[in-house]
Design a protein that fits this description.
By secondary structure, this protein is mostly helical. 80% of the residues lie in helices and 1% in strands.
Length: 339
């Protein structure tokens, strides 16, 4: 009994430390964003947390535990569903309740969604419909193509977002008029580089604490009789906390463009960096890797992309669109518990 209480208190301490690291990372990300402007500020946070998450997935794959061949698939799919429906849904709903209606650049948002739709189809759906191998698996050549295609498409997206069509991802002038942070004095170079270093440290702490909490999460899921996929969803939720907090704060400040840049950029970075990395590891070390998702998840994925396209095509949102995305998110959570 004493051991159980000690373990429970320790896990509570870890969770409190996790929240502290999340809030710190959001603060440092906002300092960088204020210095560099959009979309670079959002890009820094998305890339930093994704690189660390990829390292975590790679280490778990190389450890070779039972079910390690599904880790990348579960992590990528959970991240996409959480961002497309959970993060974007909460941002639009809460921002819509506060500001009635929020505007953004639809050309940039739709461009991001089209790349995301292509990437998830290439990597998560194609293994189900290809016939060269049985089951939800690629052949070695198919896996190599998926990895290279993902990396090239993500690289092209980065160039599109940050160089050739950067204006597609800049906040609208109307949404900046009442944003005090836009007119505040920009931080110095020294403060920006300090925040960059502290951001990386905070994100490492977030991922490390999420990994440390995973045994307790697994025990709780097992004790509750829930499917093992719930573990991946919970860990993905923990890892995405910094981006989620930052996106929500931006939406509450009527900066939905920043929220979308961060959310969609994070989803694209997850696939564009994770799939090439795990494909290379699987091919080089001859490890099993299953990327195909179930028919149920394919249905929810395509519904999310379809509704996301409708939401992002208008260039403005209300709380209703946020509620629709949240309904899909809760359906995803429910069907994960009761498939």
């Amino acid at each position: 009994m004493a051991n159980l209480l000690t373990s429970a208190w320790f896990n509570c301490f870890l969770f409190a430390a996790l929240i502290g690291a999340v809030l710190s990372s959001v603060h440092h990300a906002e300092v960088i964003a204020h210095k560099t402007g959009e979309p670079y500020g959002s890009l820094v946070l998305a890339l930093a947390v994704t690189v660390i998450e990829v390292s975590l997935i790679a280490s778990m794959m190389l450890a070779g535990h039972e079910g390690s061949e599904f880790i990348a698939r579960d992590a990528v799919f959970a991240t996409v569903m959480i961002i497309l429906n959970g993060v974007i849904g909460v941002c639009i709903f809460i921002g819509g309740r506060k500001h009635y209606e929020m505007g953004f650049r639809s050309d940039g948002a739709i461009s991001s969604l089209s790349v995301l739709a292509t990437l998830v189809t290439f990597t998560l759906v194609m293994p189900i419909v290809t016939t060269s191998t049985p089951g939800p698996d690629f052949t070695t050549s198919q896996l190599a193509f998926a990895g290279i295609a993902s990396f090239v498409m993500y690289g092209g997206f980065l160039f599109f977002q940050s160089v050739s069509h950067r204006d597609y991802y800049l906040p609208q002038e109307k949404s900046q008029q009442h944003d005090e942070s836009i007119h505040a004095e920009k931080p110095s170079n020294a403060k920006t580089f300090t925040s960059l270093g502290l951001l990386v440290i905070c994100l490492i702490v977030v991922v490390g604490l999420a990994k440390a909490l995973s045994p307790a999460i697994e025990s709780g899921v097992k004790a509750a009789g829930l499917p093992k996929t719930i573990v991946g969803i919970v860990i993905a939720l923990l890892v995405l906390l910094p981006e989620s907090f930052a996106a929500l704060r931006a939406a509450k400040a009527n900066r939905l463009q920043s929220s979308l840049n961060l959310a969609l950029g994070s989803a694209l970075a997850t696939i564009g960096l994770t799939i090439p990395a795990v494909a290379a590891i699987a091919i080089w070390f001859h490890l099993p890797l299953s990327l195909g998702i179930s028919n149920l998840n394919i249905t929810l994925l395509f519904l999310s992309i379809f509704v996301g396209g409708l939401t992002l095509s208008l260039g403005k949102t209300t709380a209703l669109q946020g509620a629709v995305h949240l309904a899909i998110f809760f359906e995803y959570l429910f069907s994960s518990v009761v498939p």
